[in-house]
UniProtKB/TrEMBL annotation, chains A, B:
Lineage of the organism: Bacteria, Pseudomonadati, Thermodesulfobacteriota, Desulfarculia, Desulfarculales
Lineage: superkingdom: Bacteria
Pfam families documented for this protein: Ald_Xan_dh_C, MoCoBD_1, MoCoBD_2
Listed GO MF terms: iron ion binding; oxidoreductase activity
Matches recorded under InterPro entries: Ald_Oxase/Xan_DH_a/b, Ald_Oxase/Xan_DH_a/b_sf, Ald_Oxase/xanthine_DH-like, AldOxase/xan_DH_MoCoBD1, AldOxase/xan_DH_MoCoBD2, AldOxase/xan_DH_Mopterin-bd_sf
Domain Aldehyde oxidase/xanthine dehydrogenase a/b hammerhead positions: 22-129
Protein's UniProt name: Aldehyde oxidase
Length: 769, 769
């Protein structure tokens, strides 16, 4: 019997690296089918207007045009993630609500014909007054985007736990601050595209970059009024999701309609600009944080109010209204807390769930802790440790935290970053900052039944693993294969993976909300274990051993403690086949959570089965003349339960820090004309971090071995992504000696903060510099 | 609770009819992939030659050529269905053995370039002496095709059961006759094509018309030295198989090699002529039948010797050497029997398993019974009944026959055809004939493990059925869905089917050797029952009933006897999902047979789990001037166990009768030049029955409700196909009063028989006319 060696925890290279690096990976926009048509969407030039008529006759008459669709020839299906957030007609019929909303679409033999045909569609609009920020939208006389939502309040999340006012009253120190940030963009590498192919058996094949094939299929089946097993979302390579590809988009509905109408395959590819306007954006937000603490820095009460600019429709935005609060209440002990989150409709593109929930929210809470620590004369690190969540505790809204090594994350990243040597001792305009956060793991949003997996064997001992989990860039395909290979004693190369495809794979919630490893991984673990049980049963007879003594390793079945007693796995499979037993393992896993209908507006009970925790420390230098920030170093640490594949975990940490920190916190913001037109939908004007912008980073993996995660694993990377922004805001504030409360930390905002400081202190220097 | 109504036995229209009738069905030759290359095979002009060298340089240098393969750059993999029949290098290296054998192949940007490049390949041949018939091949000084097979005997099947010589000695009447037939063709509607696509994950996708995707994948994985789970045979529409698409062909190996070499998708489409030369053909055969019977017409002993012209390689031909004997020993009681079957190598295209096994074999046995009945003064019908197999008996080689209604088939078809009113009473040149046969059902050739199936459910109550069974024209897709729908109380439209695809589907032996309904259908039955058990478990709690009292019907679960207590199936699925249970049913089924290595050469024990039985009666008029035969009517009857879908069963009966009878018996024969070139590889010169050639036919379905067939079903159509030829030979012989022992019954052969009769009897009329 060979030396015990586990795949779990090994640095297994990604299966998709080569295809992606060599350009061979086929993304949706690369798909070409015989007879495929090209599609183009006609978009609204108005932020708010009544549609009086849509005349598609000229477009239809253009040679080469095969189908034209608009709200005029659909049933007016309304879409929303939850029953009570269905506010968007996938093709508008009466009204458009933002510049760029799709109004009609054409499928034609070539893209040029489709473009020309789209320009021939005549839409008669009656412009309506519009609102472009939450204050205008909530004004008493504001035009309403949706008549059934007075004050343009899309959703109001109101949470209260404990005696908040008593908490403030008993506090030694109470402070209220306001933090703001404009909209940001997901800016996935791959612009959105969709391909639809109507098949002879009455089913419809679809490809699109997405985070949840089974959810997409379900939503589209509802919208198209087709049985779910006839709407087949296929696998393709996906260039990022980040929360922005979770719900159904009008574009995939439109592509499906065009293909059904023309009875031909249809491809729709968004331009980069369309990807910014017509998919989703991060919410602009205005957050007021009031915190009371005792003299030792322990938080006694907190009250947060947040106004989020949601754009024209709900999408997954209502979830994004709760999530920053939930992350925050998981991360810190809070005897009493109140939250009012308002997501407000405006005549702008739609805000959705975003990987880095709440720049002005999470950063506000953390930066305020820094300020109050200073006011109390405490090290912010020490203050974090005093408030840090511990395993075995329950959150204010009732989630039991079964594993948590947040304090270790803080301590270990502080040690690596040299926090105690540096904090308060750095020269002028040189600062250090700390962010912490927590994220749900196995958060079953909007789908029943969790994830299921199937594994089947061939007579040569190879297996095929069938899982609905999608890999949209984070390496889920590796994760699935690694778990199955570990259980079965196979080499990962022995396992062929069918993932994502909704025809072949069983139910799965999707690779968003930190579910893939926990939910999908556990389903694979159960399926592989089920198969192994059958294999052991077969081998036990031949090896004259008890199944409990058998070990699967190195493509063989061994008897523990009797290294000479072994059978190749392939031989066991063939023995079973000769008896007519085809080994097929199956597994089904769903998080143990409270499925309460109203959890969105007022969450209660177990939100998620477990939670990850992270702490990021950043060190920066600020140029006081230009306001430019130079990120010297970032230390990224997270309790990810168990690092199944440290290489992927580190990739997630670093990607998260770049997205949430050096890109999101330092650069990104969407700008708008006063007519609601996005000024910077493209790469030239909207700034994201490029490789040269990525700062030096160090990773600290903290393992807590979660009792229900697969091999102890929880999500990896989100808690880093969500703490990186805070660390940078804290570091810049620490560097200049004045808290910066408007994000992102572009030079103008840094200079503005320096000016505020000067206005407050005059020539007396005030804080650190 | 609704009225009890079963899908089983209902006339369910075929799911593929519309696609096929409208031309929308995508066959392999229709597949187009981005960047796909076109392939062309260079074929040997010699029937037998040594390959001295192959120079591909000029072809490789032609612009647009992406890959060239020949035996020079393959490892010389030898292929054969069984370990001891591996005699064919998929690309020859030293020798070619028939005109048309593929020697090299090219993949290029266009077919024109591929053709030109193929013509630029220079093969230096040294011609060798060749043999074109079994007598020349078995001659002592004949050139050997395979040095390890003296006398060019590919396989010698030698079976002996009972005391044969004693049987003859004790017989009242003994007769020996010789029957001959040349090669015939499958002539599938769809010419062979193959598409190969190398994927980024190291797997290879393949499409080709085939009868057994999992067998193809296994064979190609062996030949290409790839893991089985990386060789993925996909589903496509298939235009017929008839036994001729069961084993691996050089062409799919070549297409795979070209695609791996070029790293591009490659398509190879055969011309109609290539389809005749380079796939498979039916064996030419020479059969000597000696039968002894008592005065009452009971057969006491039989000795059959058959020489089969096998062509250059084994393929599935060795199986075809046994099968006619096995069918015959199942059909008739035989106290003592001997069989010597010789499959002989010749320098002609390869003979394979053919749906209508043995024109000169089965027809010989049946026609001899007619002759002997006449000699005994018995009605041939009566003689058949006296010798007909009965349920509960065991065949000479040891197969127990668990269900058999052969006598009823004979009686019922005789009644419908008016046999007793007509036999011996028809006017001159007007005749009636009877054929009977039996076929194995669930005959597990060359693959382990039988068939497995998986069924999974969606929350809307729809299901997806996953089965490796392929539909190559007979309607298997319907059969699979029908069985699952019946068990689950669903409408067939509620079930999406994934079949054939070897990546997504579990193991299956293939749709040949009468396995699909029995083996694949039983696997589906078990998988659906497994799912139903889970559904009943879930519903029982909610309905407060025992699972044993539940009934699945009309998309609902009912409590038997309490029609008001019911739950929609979709609701039960959702209840299960809320608990994290994804309903996934699985089933695995393999025939209970003796897996003996040498069964091919000397079968023993249970050959097949059950057997079908058929009887066909034909009525003809012969024009004595021209020899033309006019088929007036055919009555087709078979014990198919249970007719799951009578419409499909009738289709199989009629298709079988056309193929085996009006086409195969009356028209078809391949002709050859003395250099071994096939003279009639195309539709113009090789005659198959056209719609106008199809005679009036009547179907008699006899059900025996087999104890292990799914819902009692056995194979449908083969026993008709295999008895139709005998019925026609009997009818023509009866019409002219002289047995015709050379087939097919073309006018020249009929006139020849009339001339023989005249030579024998002179002007005295002899027999009937």
């Amino acid at each position: 019997m060979p030396v015990e060696q586990s795949l779990i925890g090994s640095r297994m290279p990604r299966v998709d690296s080569e295809a992606k690096a060599t350009g061979r990976a086929i993304f949706t926009g690369d798909i070409s089918l015989p007879g495929m048509l090209q599609a183009k969407v006609l978009r609204s030039p108005y932020a708010h207007a009544r549609i009086k008529s849509i005349d598609t006759q000229k477009a239809e008459a253009l040679p080469g045009v095969r189908a034209v669709v608009s709200g005029m020839n659909t049933a007016g299906v309304k879409w929303g993630v939850f029953r009570y957030t269905r506010d968007q007609k996938l093709l508008p019929q009466e009204r458009v609500r933002y510049v760029g909303e799709g109004v009609a679409a054409v499928a034609a033999d070539t893209l040029e014909i489709a473009q020309e045909a789209a320009s021939l569609i005549k839409v008669d609009y009656e412009p309506l007054p519009a609102v472009f920020n939450v204050w205008d939208a909530m004004a008493p006389d504001a035009p309403l985007l949706h008549e059934d939502h007075p004050g343009n309040i899309n959703v109001h999340v109101a949470i209260e736990a404990g005696e908040v006012e008593e908490g403030f009253a008993g506090s030694y120190l109470v402070r209220e601050d306001t933090f703001t940030a404009p909209e940001d963009s997901y800016f996935m590498t791959e612009p959105y595209a969709a391909v639809a192919n109507p098949r002879q058996d009455g089913s419809l094949e679809l490809w699109m970059p997405n985070a949840a094939p089974h959810q997409k299929a379900k939503a589209l089946a509802n919208a198209l009024k087709m049985p779910l097993n006839k709407v087949i979302v296929r696998k393709s390579y996906i260039g990022g999701a980040f929360g922005g590809r979770s719900d159904v988009f009008p574009a995939e509905f439109i592509t499906a309609l065009l293909s059904l109408e023309s009875d031909r395959p249809v491809r729709l590819c968004f331009t980069r600009e369309e990807n910014s306007l017509a998919t989703r954006k991060g919410h602009g937000m205005y957050t007021i944080v009031k915190t009371g603490m005792d003299k030792q820095g322990r938080v006694l009460a907190r009250d947060v109010t947040c106004y989020m600019d949601g754009g024209a429709y709900s999408s997954t935005g209502p979830i994004a209204t709760s999530v920053p609060f939930l992350c925050h209440e998981q991360c810190y002990r809070l005897p009493a807390v109140r939250y009012n989150g308002y997501r407000v409709y405006t005549n702008k593109p739609i805000g959705g769930m975003y990987r880095v929930h709440g720049r002005a929210w999470a950063t506000g809470v953390d930066l305020q802790l820094d300020i109050m620590a200073e006011e109390l004369g405490l090290d912010p690190l020490e203050l974090r440790l005093r408030n840090a969540r511990q395993a075995g505790e329950t959150t204010p809204t009732g989630s039991y935290v079964q594993s948590c090594r947040l304090s270790q994350c803080i301590e270990q990243s502080a040690e690596k970053a040299g926090w105690r040597e540096k904090y308060g001792k750095l020269p002028a305009y040189h600062g250090i900052g700390l962010g912490t956060n927590s994220v749900q793991t196995g958060f079953p949003l909007g789908i029943r039944g969790g994830s299921a997996a199937i594994i089947k064997f061939n007579e040569d001992g190879g297996a095929t693993l069938i899982s609905g989990v999608v890999d949209n860039g984070q390496g889920n395909d590796n994760m699935l294969v690694q778990i199955a290979a570990e259980i079965l004693g196979l080499d990962p190369r022995d396992i062929q993976l069918i993932s994502a495809d909704t025809e072949a794979t069983p139910n799965d919630p999707g690779a968003y909300s930190m579910q893939a490893t926990f939910t999908g991984g556990n389903a694979v673990l159960l399926a592989a274990t089920d198969a192994r049980d059958q294999i052991f049963e077969e081998a036990a007879q031949a090896l004259e051993a008890h199944t409990r003594d058998l070990v699967a390793k190195d493509r063989s079945i061994y008897v523990a403690g009797a290294p000479d007693k072994a059978l190749p796995l392939a031989k066991v499979i063939r023995m079973a086949l000769l008896k007519g037993n085809n080994i097929i393992g199956r597994g089904s896993f769903a998080s143990k959570v409270d499925h309460r209908r109203e959890w969105l507006k007022n969450p209660q009970g177990q939100l998620s089965e477990t939670f990850s925790f992270g702490a990021t420390i950043a060190e920066v230098k600020v140029d006081p003349e230009t306001g430019e920030v130079d990120i010297l170093n970032m230390v990224l640490s997270q309790d990810c339960g168990k690092a199944l594949n440290p290489m992927l975990v580190e990739g997630q940490f670093e990607g998260g820090a770049v997205m949430g920190g050096s890109s999101g916190m330092m650069k990104e913001e969407h700008l708008w004309t006063k007519e609601g037109l996005c000024l910077n939908p493209g790469f030239l004007d909207y700034k994201v971090a490029l490789p040269l912008d990525v700062p030096p980073m160090e990773n600290v993996i903290v393992e807590s071995i979660d009792p229900t995660g697969p091999f102890g694993a929880k999500e990896a990377g989100m808690s880093v992504a969500m703490s990186a922004a805070q660390a940078l805001a804290g570091a810049v504030s620490n560097a200049i000696g004045w808290p910066v409360m408007e994000y992102p930390l572009t030079p103008d905002r840094v200079l503005n903060a320096l000016a505020q400081k000067k206005a407050a202190y005059g020539d007396s220097k005030g804080g650190k510099p």
